[in-house]
Specification:
heterodimer; A: 258 residues; mainly alpha; MetI-like fold; 85% helix; 0% strand; B: 270 residues
Chain lengths: 258, 270
């Protein structure tokens, strides 16, 4: 019991301290850009708990989910194909390396040409940006599948879908998840940026709007909301990863305990 | 006793050597880029054929604004990366070697790390305007966590026997950091720096694009608003080339700094 309490204290102490320090030092603040935390929290409740949640936050999250899922499906399928053939990999590599090296936000002006400035453009932007880390990690993961396992599967005539299901995907799983994790943070960035460019609603749009109208506490509350969002999504991701790759984490824990 | 020479896997190495695959890949992409708009599969107004883009690129290369923008982007990248690296390595070693700090800061780091740095854009604009400092705020925030996390991993990877040995010989804290902790953590630090150098470029260009700080991103925004589509593509290509250059440089630095490390030596021998 006391061990649990001590861990809780260790987890909560510094965050609590920082919040209290922020509250105290900012409370008498007259700096226009750094309003008291009291005001920011009041603005947070006013702005985000209400209509704006449905009109700005939910559409953003829906686009994020759509873009991310498209990227994951496309990247994992293509990655499995590319990763399994040495020749395809060799031919695809220069193009992929180049496309990956382009900072994703600069694709927004180009994608606006093709897809306008609606939901479609934003979803494509998110998908195009998120696809590369997943694709390259999948290729690497599939390439590195243990040759003995591949030969064993071949001896037992395990092929096609069951080979994919029982050998390739599990073996590449940890690497694929590493790519998915990188892609998640890129997708969040692109969700925000695509809405800063051309939009009438969305989280990024709302925050920029607040900044342009000098609604400073509201702007700060938006930044805090984005932070919370990033944290919650990262936590959810870890939970999914632990569930899907339970065997992998078990194996690693066992190897450590030896 | 002699063994038969190992057969090349699936014979691909002999029939289709890697360099030929690379060349084929590049030629294929370039050809697609040229032919697709020529055939009218995609309106040439949206996707100009490659020769137009190359022409625009040549034109850009003759303008001093272009070189100034490239310089501004690289300057922001380098300064931001340097600040982030120094801060993250210093703090990382301090936190990592102090068990109390490690426990106390874990939750805070886990909370702050996933905050997307673009959330800071409005704040950066208000505080600094379309200025180098705006860009630096974004770059430093994003790159800092990449390095810090790796440093913390690396410091905790220290071999307990080596650490105890150093203690038995009464190494000072400084000595232990210099001779035990640092060599252990260095591979992690280099990985963190490599990841951070890519992220720093993304944020540098993003800052220029969205905030309007001088640099390649700003040039892209200008090309877009002027509907100079081939120039737009040419500039995007340049950012990709800069990305590849930075990645290559980071890998080279990693190999150089770690030439003594078993993971690198192993590659050379095998």
């Amino acid at each position: 019991m006391s061990a649990v309490l001590r861990r809780l204290a260790a987890t909560m102490a510094l965050p609590a301290l920082l919040v209290v320090a922020w509250w105290w030092t900012s409370d008498a603040s007259t700096n226009f850009y750094l309003p008291p935390l009291r005001q920011i929290l009041a603005a947070f409740a006013d702005v985000w708990i209400g209509d704006r949640f449905a009109t700005d936050v939910l559409p953003s999250l829906a686009r994020l989910a759509a873009g991310y899922l498209i990227a994951a499906v496309v990247a994992i399928s293509a990655g499995v194909v590319i990763g399994q053939s040495r020749v395809v990999r060799g031919i695809a590599e220069p193009g992929l390396e180049f496309l990956r090296a382009i900072p994703p936000p600069v694709l927004i002006p180009i994608l606006i040409l093709f897809a306008g400035i609606g939901d479609q453009m934003k979803i494509i932007v998110i998908a195009v940006g998120a696809v590369w880390p997943i694709l390259l990690n999948t290729v690497e993961g599939v390439r590195a599948v243990d040759q003995v396992l591949i030969d064993t599967a071949r001896s037992y005539r395990i092929s096609g879908l069951s080979r994919l299901r029982h050998l390739t995907l599990p073996a590449a799983g940890p690497q694929i998840f590493a790519g998915l994790r990188q892609a998640l943070s890129i997708a969040i960035i692109l969700m925000v940026i695509s809405e800063m460019f051309a939009a009438r609603e969305g989280l990024g749009f709302a925050i920029i709007q607040f900044q342009r109208t000098f609604a400073i506490p509201e702007m700060w509350s938006g930044t805090i909301l984005l932070g919370l969002l990033g944290f919650v999504l990262a936590t959810l991701f870890r939970m999914v990863e632990r569930r899907v790759l339970f065997w992998y984490f078990g194996q690693r824990a066992a190897a450590r305990d030896h | 006793m002699t063994y038969p020479a190992p057969r090349a896997v699936a014979g691909t190495r002999i029939g289709f050597p890697p360099w030929a695959q690379t060349v084929t890949g590049i030629v294929l992409v370039a050809a697609l880029f040229e032919i697709v708009p020529q055939l009218g599969l995609v309106p040439a107004a949206y996707l100009p054929p490659l020769h137009d883009v190359v022409g625009a690129l040549a034109e850009e290369a003759g303008r001093s604004q272009f070189w100034f923008a490239l310089y501004e982007t690289l300057r922001g990248w380098a300064i931001g990366l340097a600040i982030a690296a120094v801060a993250a390595i210093g703090l990382g070693v301090l936190i990592g070697t102090t068990p109390f700090l490690l426990v106390a800061t874990r939750s805070t780091i886990e909370f702050l790390r996933p905050i997307p740095s673009v959330a800071l854009i409005p704040l950066a604009v208000l505080l600094f305007g379309a200025d180098l400092r705006s860009k630096l705020l974004l770059i430093v925030y994003a790159a800092f966590w990449q390095v810090l996390i790796q440093v913390l991993y690396g410091v905790q990877d220290v071999d307990p026997v080596a650490d105890d040995t150093a203690r038995s010989y009464r190494f000072s804290r400084r000595g232990r950091i210099r001779y035990v902790v640092w060599p252990t953590a260095l591979p992690y630090v280099m990985t963190g720096l490599r990841l951070a150098s890519t992220v720093a470029l993304v944020l540098a260009v993003t800052g220029e694009l969205v905030i309007g700080a001088p640099g390649l991103g700003q040039q892209i925004a200008l090309a877009q608003s002027g509907a100079a589509i081939p120039t737009l593509y040419a500039l995007v290509m340049v950012t990709g080339l800069v990305g590849i250059l930075i990645n290559t440089l980071a890998r080279w630095a990693e190999r150089r700094m770690l030439s003594w490390h078993p993971s690198m030596r192993g590659e050379a021998v095998a």
